[in-house]
Amino acid sequence: QERFVESGGGLVHPGGSLKLSCVVSESISLYAMGWYRQAPGKERELVAYISNGGRKDYADSVKGRFTISRDDAEKTVYLQMNSLKPEDTAVYYCNQGIYSRGTYHGGDYWGQGTPVTVSS
Questions:
Q1: What angle do CA 69, 40, 50 make, to 5 degrees?
Q2: How far apart are the C-alpha atoms of 25 and 22, rounded to whole Å?
Q3: Rounded distance, CA 97 to CA 108, Å?
Q4: Which of 62, 75, 105, 108 has the smallest number of Cβ neighbours within 10 A?
């Protein structure tokens, strides 16, 4: 059984919106959760995280456009992406980690990811 099942990606025009979902196979209530992305030829980067207490932070490149949220009862993490740009094109992955001293520390497990393509 996959630990993370990401969905919601697709092809969207610039300025459009998508909402990604990540269903986790185990309880997430004690963990911080993050969304990463990896564009072709680039390193995987942290896009957003939410602590188990609800503290959120975002990469500068997505601030004001993306919103991360969580539903612990459903073991699901979401990423609402608005005003999408071609540079947001990437495979998006969720991650389960720890929030400590103001920093998100990502875990070692990854799902298959969900691809997002922003193109006219």
A1: 15
A2: 10
A3: 8
A4: 108
| CA-angle at 28, arms to 11 and 77, nearest 5° | 20
Find residue 118's DSSP bridge partners: 12
pLDDT confidence tier of residue 1, bands split at 50, 70 and 90: confident
pLDDT-based confidence at 2, cuts 50/70/90? confident
pLDDT tens per residue, range 57-114 = 999 999 999 999 999 999 999 999 999 999 999 999 999 999 999 899 999 999 999 9
Name the β-bridge partners of 52.
Answer: none
Considering only CA atoms, which of 88, 95, 68, 65 is closest in space to residue 10? 88
d(CA 52, CA 99): 8
Q: In which residue are the tokens 């400590």 written?
A: 100
* Residue at token pair 């094109």: 89
The Cα–Cα gap between 39 and 62 comes to 14
Q: What is the dihedral of CA 54, 8, 91, 62, to 10 degrees?
A: -50
